[in-house]
Amino acid sequence: MLKKITSYTFLLVGLILLNSCKKEYESIQSIDDTKIKDYISRNNITDAIEDPDKTGFYYQIKTQGTGELFKTTDSVLYSVSVKSLLSGTDYYTTPSITNLGTYVGYASSFSYATTNGSVGFALPALRKVLQTLKPGGVARILLPSYLAFGKNGATLLNVPSNENIEFTLTTYPEKSQRLLDDRRIREFLQSKGLTATKDASTGVYYAVTDAGTGTAIELTSTLKAKYTGRKLDGNVFDSSTDGTFSTTLLQVISGWEVLKNFKKGAKVRLFIPSLEAYGTAGSSTGTIPANACLDFDIEVVDVTN
């Protein structure tokens, strides 16, 4: 009899705890929903659209974009900003020198990583809202906490517990990274008042101070060079200026292969699209983000064939 009572007691306690957790979860949903609706009303967002599946998020199309609506099979390039819905505190914005990219059908999460750690969450709303936009379109997604960083928040981004999130999604008109890289480089050159020649096969732009007069450079040549590498925001990520750096063109990023057009003594500035640099992964150290174009000053001090 004692065993039966004990078993029933545990079952009863378990049901009470389960029901309590369910009520707590439901109350968070209710609280978040009220906050988001109040925010929409208070800010007179008359064009806010509730998720048709009633999962809890709302979205607002700020700019429709041009062309045809994104399909799940389309490639999409985009940037995001993440901030507190109620306080407006900024938590994260995609740096202007880079972007995110995937197929629309795979766009179902948000993640952020540094050498100090990573954070992310499932975000089906991203895919849903993308399919309401055209290339170049912008949308704002209002996310309840339970569809964002949840009860734990995100220490890496300083997001507190149960924070409702404003997630702004900006898509680019270009559907290929190569086209977006090319525009970024052209706009950079224009902003700096620089003139450069585009290499047709690689998309690398180069500005020549001295073409060199010595030994011709080949893919397998051993070069000694001085160089400084920068991101397009001007930040230097690597430099070797004493002339001891030695390599072949097969051992460095493919954008350097443009140096085949020059000779020993050449002084060249290269503007390298991301696909000829560190691509969609970025550098292994995290110094160079994914999809980042690069700017190099290079002087070839010696060539050995």
Automatic annotation (TrEMBL):
One Pfam family in the UniProt entry: FKBP_C
Sorted UniProt keywords: Isomerase, Rotamase
Repeat found in the keyword field: no
Domain PPIase FKBP-type: 220-304
Principal EC category: isomerase
EC number: 5.2.1.8
Signal peptide, first to last residue: none
Catalysed reaction equations from the record: [protein]-peptidylproline (omega=180) = [protein]-peptidylproline (omega=0)
Any GO molecular function: peptidyl-prolyl cis-trans isomerase activity
Keyword Oxidoreductase: no
Family to which this protein belongs: Belongs to the FKBP-type PPIase family.
PANTHER family: FK506-BINDING PROTEIN 59-RELATED (PTHR10516:SF443), PEPTIDYL-PROLYL CIS-TRANS ISOMERASE (PTHR10516)
Protein name in the entry: Peptidyl-prolyl cis-trans isomerase
Taxonomic classification: Bacteria, Pseudomonadati, Bacteroidota, Sphingobacteriia, Sphingobacteriales
